[in-house]
Amino acid sequence: MTDTRTVGVLGTGIMGAAMARNLAKAGHTVRVWNRTRAKAEPLAADGAHVAGTPTEAVRDADVVLTMLYDGGTVLEVMREAAPALRPGTVWAQSTTVGLEAAGELAALAREHGLVLYDAPVLGTKQPAEAGRLTVLAAGPAEGRETVTPVFDAVGARTVWTGEDAAAATATRLKLVANSWVIAATAATGEALALAKGLGVDPQGFFDLIADGPLDMGYLHAKAGVILDGAYLPPSFAVATAEKDARLIVQAGEAHGVRLDVAAASAERFARAAARGHAGEDMAAAYFASFGDGSDDSGGPGESAEPAGS
Fold first, then answer.
1. Domain 6-167's class?
2. How far apart, in whole angstroms, are the C-alpha atoms of residue 162 and residue 139?
3. What confidence score (pLDDT) does residue 285 get?
């Protein structure tokens, strides 16, 4: 088998579009579909065929890659597309879904004789565009030669977590990783919000922890978004972060684990979304620290922009 594949990409949002573009750049034949076609159209300039339906996008595919909003959306779209696939077609499921949805998707794959790889990715807009994602993958060892060139085109490395996609070991690891990302994002926003409230220059905080065990690159990345007001385009949107936080809480509850930080973070994202920040970078949860939800003021007559901006 050659190293090039015919790949049907379902979902061309922030992540899916970047992944499709890198697949085309690597020489694969790429067909893309998105519910809002305008989001897929720019990929034609990169050599991808823009399909009008999921069925058209996956016809004759060696690999189908799903990168949609949530598990319910993947289930709906793949129920439409799966009858057009021949048994034995590889399905790389990269949407972040909960454990319940992962089980439903595995059942759908079995129903249609598809070879499922549970394959969420770690990374946001910039690494996706650079083809530097980390692919977390679970699925049968036999046949991995079909999907490996696809993972290699979109990611810098692939971390295999098991051979049974139905066990969702890759999704489980992704939820754990996302719980840390969400907690760090919330902590960054709250630290800067408190600095604003107390009249502390954020740079003093950064200087205090510089080069020590409390310092971290992610803090500076998200703090930079807040201090610069650079919420668009998002690396990872508030609405999507809320969805993931709730999936994390649900997974914990199903296994007897209470996750207070994730639950509180979900509410922070929801408040920020309600105030008009749903499509902005997840760092915009910062605004959930201020006001009564009617505006973005940090108090009477005050701006919600952080001190030192």
1. alpha beta
2. 6
3. 98
CA atoms within 13 A on the CB side of 86: 6
Question: In sequence order, what DSSP letters do the residues of 79-135 get, joined into one string?
Answer: HHHGGGSPTT-EEEE-S---HHHHHHHHHHHHHHT-EEEE--EE--HHHHHTT-EEE
The DSSP output letter for 46 is G
Do 227 and 306 touch, CB atoms closer than 8 A? yes
Q: Which fold has domain 172-303?
A: N-(1-d-carboxylethyl)-l-norvaline Dehydrogenase; domain 2 (1.10.1040)
Rounded Cα–Cα distance for residues 228 and 238 (Å): 17
Look-up of token digits 């020590």: 212
Check pLDDT > 50 for residue 108: yes
Closest C-alpha among 113, 117, 108, 114 to residue 150 = 117
Q: Where are the alpha helices (DSSP H) in the chain?
A: 14-25, 54-58, 71-81, 99-112, 125-129, 144-154, 169-198, 202-209, 217-228, 238-254, 260-272
pLDDT category at 291 given cuts 50, 70, 90 is confident
Model's pTM, two decimal places? 0.93
Nearest to 152 by CA among 134, 170, 140, 125: 134
Kind and range of the H or E element at 298? strand 297-299
Residue that is written with structure tokens 């649900």 in the block: 250
Q: Where in the chain is the domain with CATH 3.40.50.720?
A: 6-167
Which pLDDT tens digit goes with each residue over 163-182? 999 999 999 999 999 999 99
Report whether pLDDT(204) > 60.
Answer: yes
* CATH 1.10.1040.10 domain span(s) along the chain: 172-303
